[in-house]
Specification:
The chain is an alpha+beta fold. The protein has one domain: Lipocalin, CATH 2.40.128. It is 18% helix and 55% strand. It contains 2 helices and 8 strands. The protein has an 8-stranded antiparallel β-barrel. Strand 6 and strand 7 form a beta hairpin. 7% of the residues are buried.
Length: 131
């Protein structure tokens, strides 16, 4: 029994190290398309974000109210700050040409879901991996 305890300790250590190393870094996990669909009041909102490896960002927001849909497109850049929990986004609205900088907290991020919280208003946004 005494000989088994050190082996179990080593096996547990290797398992924990393996799980830790298997977690993708936020800079890798965020890449690709993310989609949010929700209803607020009488409006349906569809929001898509596409994060590229070169730190470029494309996005589109579609608002549907009473059958009428208004769509706005965005382009910009993003950076995950050193704390790995803050996303800094600089976007330009395609129609108004207005540039805006936002800081967003990454609450959770995995291969299927990304939960972001706007630092300004505390609003949570739950995205799913897009196709």
């Amino acid at each position: 029994m005494r000989a088994i305890k050190p082996l179990l300790t080593v096996a547990l250590f290797l398992l924990l190290v393996g799980v830790t190393l298997a977690q993708p870094k936020p800079q890798e996990a965020i890449l690709g398309k993310w989609v949010l669909s929700q209803k607020e009041g009488g409006a349906e909102i569809k929001f898509s974000l596409d994060f590229a490896k070169d730190n470029k960002l494309k996005g589109e927001v579609a608002f549907t109210v009473g059958g009428d849909t208004k769509t706005e497109g965005y382009e910009g850049t993003y950076k995950i700050l050193e704390d790995n929990k803050t996303l800094e986004v600089i976007t330009t609205n395609k129609s108004t040409k207005k540039e805006e900088t936002n800081k967003i907290t990454i609450r959770s991020l995995n291969e299927r879901e990304m939960v972001l919280v706007d630092v300004k208003d505390g609003k949570e946004m739950r995205f799913e991996r897009g196709k």
